[in-house]
Design goal:
With about 400 residues, the protein is of the alpha/beta class. The protein is built from 13 helices and 16 strands. Helix content is about 40%, strand content about 20%. A hairpin with a 5-residue loop joins β7 and β8. The radius of gyration is 21 Å and the shape is globular. The termini are far apart. Bound molecules: nicotinamide-adenine-dinucleotide (NAD) and sulfoquinovose-uridine-C1,5'-diphosphate (USQ). Sulfoquinovose-uridine-C1,5'-diphosphate binds next to α8, β11 and β12.
């Protein structure tokens, strides 16, 4: 299959591109490299020493003999280049990971709020419009987010994208209808994923675009079988207050002797998936595109749920860290329950890797190996969800 990986220089995109290439896909990475520029803007760097994209693909060719194409293109502001790419490349599948994905960054300032909406909404819409304009039948696989469902305080098993609701009509006759699960975004970033869903629904219905939307949980770990082949293939590992996600942050915090930063009580329950399972799921989704026709296929890409304080306890137990409850910079429920259905991906062959596995030890070892690259000043989260907290922290509004 000819497969484009949009956002293929990122944390999920790079190992996805390698995994697809290793499994016989003819891969082209399309990326604006905006993420590397944001690192510079913020003055942060990946824990791991990631190489420039050109060097990465050359190392992959040397290690495996396989070629990966690279195109630098900003989907949000270069729609004509995107049309040319689709016309010339004729992909069978397009994996779309090219969005600004940090919730804290999306709440950091009016500038980053606008950037997140402008970048993500325009990137997704340009892609959909270009697929239609070029008459492409490519299967679009988008990385969405579990967070679009919102977090309830009542026990509930989240379905995969759709909900059947029933209501009495004007004559009192009970009617049933399937609707997109109502979104309840908790950040401007999650808001853009909610908007993506509507665009997918429209283009699937109006133009017959074949779309799979993967509602992914929080990804942890860093290495995959492919990125471990050569040190130049190493994957990104964010730990800073904006881009570091909770479990990876705890692993780095433990490695440098920083207290594990549990926000509030730590009762927030979230869904998780290891990066190795994430890339396998994306391949399963891409390769089952023939199943997709008509409505958007939504699959929950998660393997387990944990509350934040339990995660901290597990990491502290495995690595000797100390847990600290810090003021929560976010506006979110202090505690919630979370049940998630993931029948679709299990049905396609996903074999979940659970947290208490050797991979946790592997991730701890990576964190320890590169601990001297950590800037402890970049660990605290300095993006706040509301003005009162900004004022409390002395951050200009
Ligand atoms: P990342 O920031 O590491 O990578 C995103 C990549 O997309 C970067 O290389 C960036 O340069 C590129 N990009 C962004 N905007 C672009 C544009 N307009 N044009 C071209 N390239 C652009 O993020 P990630 O962690 O790899 O996330 C990838 C996708 O997976 C995102 O859509 C994210 O919402 C989703 N996701 C990530 C996680 C997670 O825990 N990391 C969890 C669930 C969903
Ligand atoms: N948290 C802490 N301590 C920290 C960091 C975070 O307690 O040091 C808490 C947060 O308050 C939150 C939870 O951990 O309750 C998750 O935060 P996170 O930063 O790990 O995840 P989130 O902001 O939701 O975003 C990440 C990715 C995003 C993806 C999303 C999947 O950055 O791209 O879409 O996970 S999900 O959460 O399922 O929507």
């Amino acid at each position: 299959m000819r497969t484009f990986v949009l956002g293929g220089d990122g944390f999920c995109g790079w190992p996805t591109a390698l995994h697809l290439s290793a499994h016989g896909h003819d891969v082209t990475i399309v990326d604006s490299l905006v993420r590397r520029r944001i690192d510079e803007e913020l003055g942060v760097q990946s824990l791991t020493p990631i190489r420039p994209l050109a060097e990465r693909v050359e190392a992959w060719r040397e290690a495996t003999g396989l070629r990966i194409g690279v195109v630098t293109c900003d989907l949000a502001i270069e729609p004509d280049a995107l049309v040319r790419l689709l016309t010339e490349g004729r992909p069978d599948a397009v994996v779309h990971l090219a969005e600004q994905r940090s919730a804290p960054l999306s709440m950091k300032s009016p500038h980053y709020k606008r950037f997140t909406v402008d970048n993500n909404v325009r990137a997704t819409h340009s892609l959909l419009a270009a697929l239609v304009q070029t008459g492409s039948d490519a299967h679009l696989v988008h990385l969405g987010s579990m967070g679009v469902y919102g977090y309830e305080t009542v026990p509930l098993d989240l379905p995969e994208g759709y909900l059947t609701v029933s209501y009495p009509d004007d004559n009192g006759v009970e009617r049933a209808r399937e609707i997109l699960y109502p979104t309840q975004p908790g950040s401007v970033y999650h808001l853009t994923k909610s908007l993506d869903q509507l665009m997918f629904q429209f283009y699937a219905a109006n133009d017959g675009v074949r779309i799979t939307d993967l509602h992914q949980g929080i990804v942890w770990g860093t290495q995959t079988d492919e990125t471990a082949l050569d040190h130049r293939l190493i994957n990104r590992f964010d730990y800073d207050g904006d881009y570091g996600t909770v479990l990876n942050r705890f692993l780095v915090e433990a490695a440098v002797g920083h207290p594990l930063t549990v926000h509030g009580s730590g009762g927030q329950t979230r869904a998780f998936i290891n990066i190795r399972d994430s890339v396998r799921c994306i391949r399963l989704a891409v390769e089952s595109g023939d199943e997709v026709a008509g409505r958007v296929r939504v699959m929950n890409q998660v393997t387990e749920t944990h509350c934040v304080s339990d995660l901290a306890r597990i990491v502290a137990g495995a690595s000797g860290g100390v847990v600290s409850n810090v003021a929560n910079p976010r506006r979110e429920a202090d505690a919630n329950t979370l049940g998630v259905r993931n029948d679709h991906l299990l049905g396609l062959g996903l074999e979940p890797t659970l947290l208490e596995s050797d991979l946790l030890v592997e991730s701890i070892e990576v964190a320890q190996k590169y601990a001297d690259r950590v800037d402890p000043h970049r660990i605290p989260c300095t993006s706040y969800w509301n003005r009162e907290r900004e004022a409390m922290a002395g951050v200009p509004s």
